[in-house]
Write a structure and sequence with these properties.
The complex is a heterodimer.
Chain A: H1 2-42, E1 45-46, E2 56-57, H2 61-66, H3 78-109, H4 113-128, H5 131-141, H6 147-156, H7 169-197, H8 201-209, H9 214-225, H10 227-242, H11 246-253, H12 264-274, H13 278-305
Antiparallel strand pairs in A: 1-2
Helix pairs in contact in A: 1-13, 3-7, 3-10, 4-7, 5-7, 5-11, 7-10, 10-13, 12-13
Chain B: H1 9-35, H2 40-43, H3 58-65, H4 72-104, H5 110-119, H6 125-139, H7 145-149, H8 156-167, H9 171-179, H10 184-192, H11 197-212, H12 216-221, H13 230-240, H14 245-265, H15 267-276
Helix pairs in contact in B: 3-14, 4-8, 4-11, 5-8, 9-10, 11-15, 13-14
Classes of the chains: A mainly alpha, B mainly alpha.
Amino acid sequence: MGLKKYRGIERKQARWGFIFVVPSMLFFSLFSFYPIINAIYTSFFDKRALSKAPPKFLGLGNYIRLFDPARAANSLSFYNSLRATLVFTLGTFIPLLILSLMIAVFISNLSSNRTKKFLQISYYCPAILSSVVAATIWMIIFDPRGLGNQWINALLGTPGVDQGWLVDPVMEQVSTMVIYFWKYIGYFVILFITGLASIPPTIYEAATIDGATKWQVFWRITLPLLKPTVVLVSVMAMLQCLKTFSTQYMLYSNGAPRAPINVITFNIYVTGIQQQYLGRASAMSVVLFIMMLLLTLLQFKTTKSENVDY
Amino acid sequence: MQIERKITLPKIGMSLVLLAMLFFTLMPIVFMISASFMTSRQILRMPFSWIPEGFAWENFAKAIQGNDQTYIFVRNISNSLIVSTTVAVTTVLIASLTGYGLAKFRFRGRTTIFMMIMATMMIPFEAIMIPLYMVIMVLRIQNTYVGLILPFLVSAFGVFQMKQYLTTFPTEFIDAARVDGMGEFGIYLRIVLPNCKPVIATLAILSFRSQWDNLLWPLLVSQSDKMKTIPQYISNFALERSTDEGAMMAAALLASIPMFLLFMSLTKYFIGGSAVYESRKG
């Protein structure tokens, strides 16, 4: 009898647990799972936003069109978007990773706690500004008469040269990378500082007693122990970079040429929302989704096998 | 541990790198503040002088009046505040409720549900915005707050964070409240919620900020000027006033003030909040 009553209480509690979870389940079904299934489904049709006629089934037509080699030469093709996204991602995440790790190590080597804190907060400041504001500030710096040219010319000793920050195809990509790097460097520095703080100081002490130099300590101890953080930060940075939109949108809408910075998200926006080719845009979305999915799975796989115990 | 205090070459190098980075991160912000008080002619003068000559207050007047003197800035920044605050509140409420349910109750399918929610973290918003846009069109909620808020009511990351935090919450408190005859929902409201203030603060800030910074979704949902948010305002303003750099910087500065105030008063939650991502690897 007593046991039965106890089971009753447990079942009643279990029901409450379920009730607490229901709102989230409804939300994620409606606003995550349904849309991604819908995106996959729509990507097989020639769906337009404004047409009343039922969309025509294309099979893999949209995907074949995206990857059609004949279109590769077109500067606004999906090929070019893949290239722009790849260049942007690599060009942003590699400097981000290396410099944020370097700076985090430098900061943790400082002796004054106040300086440490001051630097962390200062580096983090750009992350508070919205991407749109960040792009606006840098657009003025990159003006032909702006600070960007003045300083680069002072540095290179080439007075009066316009680097074409927002006009030249290569420089335009560099500009988007600089803006993005600027906004996120502080954030990644803090991630690394947290990772560094989790390494017990006794390990460093032991190494120092054994006569290891700082340089050796970094390569032989800090970096291997920091590997999980490095993997995590690189994947996070890459996922972030793949999703970039606001910077490119701002530069384009203020007159910069579209082709060099036509990243996938921007292409989805233009194709799906402005040109109303929903099917084609959905196919692009699915490709983006698969790219990010593979990256995330890679991260899970590497972090699982590389877990360090102290 | 103060064995070596002497100044060495590597130390100078390290300080130089840190100083250069300090200059790089802060220079554009100082530039924005300084330029917001200058006329365009001063901003683009070569060489640039950092100290404004007199204060061009009309920049701020222009920024608030907007391109056509409609003062739509006020409406747009209010829209951003409304949307961001609502999203912060709903995210905290729903995520804590779900996190509590997953952390402290045993029911069939619990692990599956948790895994499903975690799986949605792999679905980027950018990949589902087209279907969501179609939903918004079918429901006819373009240009409404509901349309702006609906896809962001709660985040998988928030659920994860809440669950992690509440797993370590002492079950004895909950059991004691049950013995005292408190209802399950009452326990959540009066015992659990008041005891996760730090994680609530972090989550609220992250959600608020992500909406404050959101440009893509409002671009899809809000076509009428009245329902636009502050990133859209800045973007339009920069486009139509492209030769008035002073006013652009004034608008950018005004749009950043709420986040700066939040950052100054709650710095530790900002910095701590980004560190929480660390725990994802656990």
